Amino acid sequence: MRQRLPEFLKRPIIDTDTTKNVRKILKQNCLNTVCENARCPNKNECYTKNTATFLIMGNVCTRNCKYCNISCQKPEPLNPEEPKNIAKAVKDLGLRYCVITSVTRDDLPDGGAEHFSNCISEIKNLTPNVKIEILTPDFKGKKESLDIIINSNPDVFNHNIETVKEVFKTARPQGNYQTSLNVLKYIKQNSKITTKSGLMIGLGETLDQIQRTFDDLKNSGCDILTVGQYIQPSKNHLPVLKYYNPDEYEILKKMAKDTGFKNFQIGPLVRSSYNAFEISGL
Questions:
Q1: Sheet of 263-266, strand order
Q2: Alpha carbons 246 and 156: distance in angstroms, whole number
Q3: CB of 144 within 8 A of CB of 183?
Q4: For residue 157, which phi and psi values (nearest 5 degrees)?
Q5: Among 140, 66, 143, which residue's Cα sits nearest to residue 107?
Q6: Contact call for residues 75 and 60 (beta carbons, < 8 A)
Q7: Are 5 and 239 in contact (CB under 8 A)?
Q8: Fewest CB atoms within 10 A around its CB: which of 25, 79, 173, 196?
Q9: Residues of the chain whose pLDDT is less than 50?
């Protein structure tokens, strides 16, 4: 039986002129957002701040992670106009900081790295003062793809570890824990780009396992850490095994600080791109 969602995890529905305008701009530019596709609990709050996390390369994924609400199907070809549309939306929304993420595209030779690069270039051409954070898949750890990302020079590179090593294969059967760490390490060792990663909790992990994950991320050169509660999107996804209470988040914050993280955001509704600008240090 599914556990009831605690009251502190519930968010009110917010619908204002600002949220309507964000949706209008996204629709006009034929853009997807992870806010809608992944059913993010913070989307209305973010829309009121005139921000959204752009989801590029379609809204279906080539991997079938057991926690994610994005469907796994055969993807459509890339839209060559998408980078320009993203840049226009960034300008129309008046963003100072934008976050771009994507579905995983294992069908593409470079995993979509060049498409990320094109998006970054178009944004910089149209709004050169905007800071850019990208949240990418692992590109199967291909150095050629990671080099494309490095050369595009985003301000923040985010790749989520998602969960502890002991739960990883259950949650991400087509991913690899060490590959994700290696991706972060490669970016850090070969660039001056700020690196970031995050994980969900509530999938059966222990505090010791969380601590080891913090250590692994820090040793891989990760600068920014996010931790939030896993919320089951539907009965077909992994069940929540534990809802952490507010006091336990204080313990996790102390663990992160003691591990050496200076920039972190840890809380029940924290997601990897939530308040991204505020914790970027930029």
A1: 32-33, 53-56, 97-102, 131-135, 156-158, 194-201, 224-229, 263-266
A2: 29
A3: no
A4: -110, 120
A5: 140
A6: yes
A7: no
A8: 173
A9: 14, 30, 34-40, 42-43, 46-48
Quick one: which of 281, 273, 280, 264 has its CA closest to 49? Answer: 273
Cβ neighbours of 58 (radius 10 Å): 21
Residue reference for tokens 């090593």: 165
201 bridge partner residues: 229
Across-strand partners of 99? 53, 133
Give the chain's domains with CATH numbers.
Answer: 7-198 (3.20.20.70)
**pLDDT tens digits, 165-216:** 999 999 999 999 999 999 999 999 999 999 999 999 999 999 999 999 999 9
Please, are residues 135 and 101 in contact by the beta-carbon 8 Å criterion?
A: yes
Cα 54-60-65 angle, rounded to 5 deg? 100
